[in-house]
Structures are given as C-alpha cells and as structure tokens.
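Ticket #4471: structure output looks truncated?

Reporter: J.K.
Steps to reproduce: submitted the chain below (302 residues) through the standard prediction queue, then opened the result file.
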Amino acid sequence: MGEHHVQIPEISSTEDEKFITNGLNRSTYLLDYINFSVLHNPFRKFPYFTASNIHGNQFQKIKRKELFSGKGDRWKKDTRIPKEEQLGHELYSADKSDFDKGHLTKREDVQWGDDRDKAVAAAESTFFYTNAMPQVDRLNRGIWRKIEDYILHHQTISEHIKINLFTGPVFRDNDPNFVTEVRDTIIQIPCLFWKVIYYQNDNVLHRTAFLTSQKNILEKRRIVKPSVRGHEVEDTDLFMTFKDAETYQVRVDFIEKLSGLKFHEATEKFVEDTPEELILSGVNVRSDKDIDIKDVRLNVTL
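Returned output as attached by the reporter:
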C-alpha cells in the first residue's frame, strides 16, 4: 500500500505456545491464495483471520454464476494442511446446521488485476473452507454484507484506492457448543466477528474496525446449546449485550482486547471508547422476520 507496508496481526503468546506444544509449525498454517492469505487455527479448525489486498482501480466485475465454468459454488478443503484440521461439508450438512458458509474474505474483494482470468481464479480461490465461518443468514446476508459492500463499492472502487482488509472471528473459551457433534467431536461456534481496514490518506496510514455478534440468534434458533448462567467469563459483556447481528464501529484496541491479536499501528479517526452503531435507518435484525436492508446507510468514510 503506497509507502506503507502493513504487517499481518500477531497471535497471542498463548496461541503461539499451542503450536509449539503440539509440535506444529505455525508457518505451515499461513496459507497464501490469490490476492489474499489465511492464518488457519488447527485447534478450533477455523481461520484465525484472513488478510486481503484490495485494489479499487483494478476491480473486475464478475458474477458469481460465471465461476467454476458456470457449474455453481465448489467449496473444498485445502490439501496443504491436514483435512481433519478443517471443517467442511461434515459441518455445514450436519443436523441443525442452520447457518451459511460465510466468506471471511469476500469473493468480490479479490476480483482485481489486469488479467480477467486471474481475477476469476482469485474469486474461485475464496471457496476454500479455510476461508469460511458458520454464520447465521441474518448476519452473513444482512448488515455484515452491507458493510462489506460499502467498503468495496462505495469506498475502495469509487475512490480508486487501495486498502488492506483483515477479517476474522473472536475465539473465546466460552463460545457455545454446536448442538450436533461432528464426527463425534464437539464444535464451538464463534459468536463475534471483526474487520480491520487499513488505508492511506495524505501519505498517512489510517485504520478502523468493525464488530458484530450472532450469539442471541444462535441460541434463539437452538443451533447451539444455551449458555450456562454463572459460567460466563468476566469480560463477556464487552459486546454480547449489544443489539444482535448489527454492526458497530470500534477502536482497533477493542478488537485486540477481545481477540488477543496485535495489529499494526496506525492513525485512527474513530477515537470514542463506546462502539458506534452503523445503522441510521429503522432496521431491526433481532427478530426472525424478513428484513429489507436497501435503505440502511452507513456513516463511514475512508
């Protein structure tokens, strides 16, 4: 990005120790794809985060139905790491799996380059399970998608800028258990998801962050076992009490506190300690009724 090189987030020493204890090389799980990378978590079988470069002035408009020779989505596991350390069809087809395969790196985000064929290949490479998280439709197709589209189309493409985008879940010891065991294994489903964006303005590197939750919907739909009262950790209410499945702008150090990750330093315009809700119109996504998000407006400027 211009004169600024943004480092990928650093995992905590506790997570790093897990690799050492289990005789694993962490670099094996840093997986490069086309225009994005993934640091995979073999212990939770989901990615720690994805990291993508987005070039707004090289974006290629490609419809999803054009991918895989028009044969539809082709999700698969990555053969570079053991298949048992990834969750694929066995999770998303399991009983009570009322959730989407939520892309962390958005398909359209990597559809850029001078060569259209490479842009198509980049889009297809987002369909690895290492880039997917179980997300309820109200989150994956709702406000979370709205902020993704806003970042890409209304900021990066329209302004012809380059950004670095990091996306991931928050792994917590008290994440709820999926009600169905997958191959005799209990799977914890993350509730919180974040995005951290880096962009350059007047040769100054800036960053901003967003956070959302799906905890209440997971429990309401009985996708996960309900929380046991008295067994929550002390900082659970940092985000769990916010309106469910709505998206908030937060400071990056708030993401660091929740996730244990350490992000590259940069200037932040958002300086409030209190997260700011990014919904300015009357959209209620706490119910299971259909919602219309076409009138949702966001007050984010990169």
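Triage note (M.O.): checked the attachment and the full token line is present. The helical segments are 13-21, 89-92, 116-124, 137-157, 215-220, 252-259.
Status: closed, working as intended.
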